[in-house]
Design goal:
This protein has four domains: about 10-55; about 65-395, 3-Layer(aba) Sandwich (Alkaline Phosphatase, subunit A); about 405-470, Arylsulfatase, C-terminal domain (2-Layer Sandwich), CATH 3.30.1120; about 475-620, no CATH class. The strands form five sheets. It has a ten-stranded mixed β-sheet, with helices on both faces. The two termini are about 30 Å apart. By secondary structure, the chain is α+β, with helices and mostly antiparallel strands.
């Protein structure tokens, strides 16, 4: 009960702390009058330190620092831990051993759209890509409002590569910025520090070290040690005109591109070492990924000029089809490694679908801010996936103006969007459907064999693309069940949405069970009802965001105390029933189930202040 009531008594605890330390101060002024009180005062202080302080101080888990390492145009198969046998990447391989390596992680297919999606949690059709408007809301803006310090180092690429101040990093939530507003397509990078010009360079081989130096400098010299922080490091490498520093040039088995990969691995290690040196690693969530797939098309290479000698600049896509600019897997599917010591499971490989658009709602939960409610957020909260509390990820992922994946099925429409250099000359403009579990290389189009799947995915794709508010804001839930009770049987939750409401109909033949209801998209409706189709609600608990509320039924006359939800016993038409159980005895003495249910309304305020997840547990008096 202490934990349940912790929040209402927040100020009581503060008062207790103040009084205890006031006694300490009084005790330090030792007089004849106060001397007899000292032993009892000390005892009180020891009790406080041993029992009360840990509860108060541990009531909330510390919010993590976050470091995002975002590469440019890196292939799915560039790292040794993703199967590469030419490039040596010991630091990233070690990072994968210390955290979780994702194998179905999606970004976008080109630079600007990838960045607007990452920053806003919204698909590029909504967030604008290279032309991301100032009206878009980034997670940096929101996390700063809850006490975080924010820094962006490297390639920005969402202000049309121009110094448009309302659309530059400082205006979009970052306290500090150093980097390039655009790419290095002409072999030149122009820098800005915050909103001021900061020179330029043609030394492409020095960029990875420069950006790492600036990131370490932020951690050591610009960071406020009293605040949690987010560092977003967006490298220019491995984009188009690549180069490595003299220390790494010519050293790898993968040519100049391999040299760049190995230097990047080394510089990432320096950044990770800085976190260790500053004793920040333990509470820092590190996310490594890339903006899009490798630039591996001859059409692009043959018409480009200005590349260093031997600069075959594309990476390796592994088993995936095509590359950057394409809606096939190699354009969107990227390596992703996540580490948070003691929180994110180590040495784990996950094939759950996860994406950069999920950063916004995931950071919202981890850092304690609310994602924007006035627009559609395409991302979902993946906190439980990251922390190993579940193994499932996104239900679907949308490919910009091209198609959609749901489960193992991926659909591409006939006029799927390709950037010019990525168009496959022999591709027929027809519906395409691929079973990614059996055909990750997307070689066998099975659209003709599964017309019902094609129709379903087309409908889902149109819903994602819809700008209609009513459809966009419709909440979506994921249901997860605990293991069946000793007697077996079925357990089911049916979701019944309404106008501004939702009903969860719970049935369980075993009588003892539990389940989790997770909000994937949208907001909790104003009215949320749980209808328990049990014979006798002996025990029932609802847990939201660490707060536990009891909802066992004790009859109509029962007046629920604080921390107990109001329960009603109703017949199948919704009329109140007397008694405690939905069971009656027949003339022959046999017990018979009465058609009806127990109804509990979960307060909207509780759900709003929670984590997007509601955990249920129940015991039926007439359990098997």
């Amino acid at each position: 009960m202490l934990i349940v009531d912790m929040v209402p008594y927040h100020f009581l605890w503060k008062s207790l702390i103040v009084h205890v330390f006031a006694l300490l101060l009084v005790g330090s002024a030792k007089t004849k009058e106060t001397e007899p009180l000292l032993p009892s005062m000390k005892a009180l202080i020891y009790i406080f330190l041993a029992f009360v302080a840990p509860v108060v101080l541990g009531a909330e888990a510390p919010r993590p620092n976050i470091v995002i390492i975002f590469t440019d145009d890196q292939g799915y198969g560039d790292l040794a831990c993703y199967g590469n046998r030419k490039n040596r990447t010991p630091r990233l391989d070690q990072l994968a051993k210390e955290g979780t390596r994702f194998t179905s992680f999606y970004s976008q297919t080109v630079c600007g759209p990838s960045r607007s999606a990452l920053l806003t949690g919204r698909q590029p059709i909504r967030s604008g890509g290279w032309g991301m408007p100032a009206s878009e809301i980034t997670w940096a803006e929101l996390v700063r409002k809850v006490g975080y310090q924010t820094a962006c180092v490297g390639k920005w690429d969402v202000s049309n590569r121009k110094a448009i101040i309302p659309r530059m990093p400082n205006a979009q939530g970052f306290d500090y910025y150093f980097g390039a507003l655009g790419a290095n397509d002409n072999g030149v990078v122009k820098f800005h520090e915050n909103n001021e010009d900061a020179g330029s360079t043609r030394d492409m081989g020095g960029l990875t070290r420069l950006y790492t130096d600036k990131s370490i400098d932020f951690l050591k010299n610009k960071r406020d040690p009293e605040k949690p922080f987010v560092l977003y490091l967006a490298h220019t490498m491995m984009h188009t005109i690549i180069d490595a520093s003299p220390r790494f040039r010519g050293k790898s088995k993968g040519g100049l591109y391999g040299d760049v990969v190995e230097e990047f691995d080394y510089e990432t290690g320096r950044l990770l070492d800085a976190l260790d040196e500053l004793q920040l690693a333990q509470n820092t969530l590190v996310i490594y990924t890339s903006d899009n797939g490798p630039w591996n098309q001859d059409k692009y290479t043959k018409r480009k000029r200005g590349h260093p000698e031997g600069a075959i600049f594309w990476g390796e896509a592994g088993p995936l089809r095509n590359g950057k600019g394409s809606p096939y897997e190699a354009g969107y599917r990227l390596p992703c490694i996540v580490r948070w010591p003691g929180k994110v499971p180590a040495a784990r490989v996950s094939d759950a679908v996860f994406a950069t658009i999920d950063f916004m709602p995931t950071f919202a939960r981890l850092c304690g801010f609310e994602a924007p409610a006035d627009r559609r957020i395409d991302g979902i909260d993946q906190t439980d996936l990251l922390l190993g509390k579940r193994e499932t990820g996104r239900e679907y992922f949308y490919f910009n103006r091209a198609g959609i994946r749901k489960g193992k099925w991926k659909y591409l429409k006939p006029d799927a969007h390709f950037h010019g250099y990525a168009v496959e000359d022999g591709r027929k403009k027809v519906d395409e459907l691929y079973d990614l579990e059996a055909d990750i290389g997307e070689r066998n189009n099975v659209a003709g064999k599964h017309p019902e799947v094609v129709a379903s995915l087309k409908e889902l794709m149109l819903e994602v693309e819809s700008k209609k508010v009513a459809r966009s804001f419709r909440p979506r839930f994921q249901l997860e069940y605990e293991k069946e009770g000793p007697g077996g049987g079925s357990r089911r939750i049916k979701v019944v949405p309404g106008e501004g409401s939702v009903v969860f109909d719970v049935t369980d033949q075993t009588g003892i069970g539990g389940a989790s209801i997770r909000l994937l998209e949208g907001k909790w409706p104003k009215k949320t009802l749980l209808r328990m189709h049990l014979s006798g609600l002996e025990e029932f608990e609802v847990a939201v965001g660490g707060r536990k509320l009891s909802a066992a039924y004790h009859g109509q006359s029962f007046s629920p105390p604080e921390g107990h939800l109001q329960v009603r016993m109703l017949d199948k038409k919704g009329n109140p029933l007397k008694g405690r159980y939905l069971v009656k005895s027949t003339r022959s003495g046999v017990s018979e189930r009465v058609a009806g249910y127990y109804e509990v309304e979960v307060p909207h305020s509780v759900l709003q202040n929670g984590t997007g997840r509601m955990d249920l547990s129940w015991v039926d008096f007439y359990r098997r």
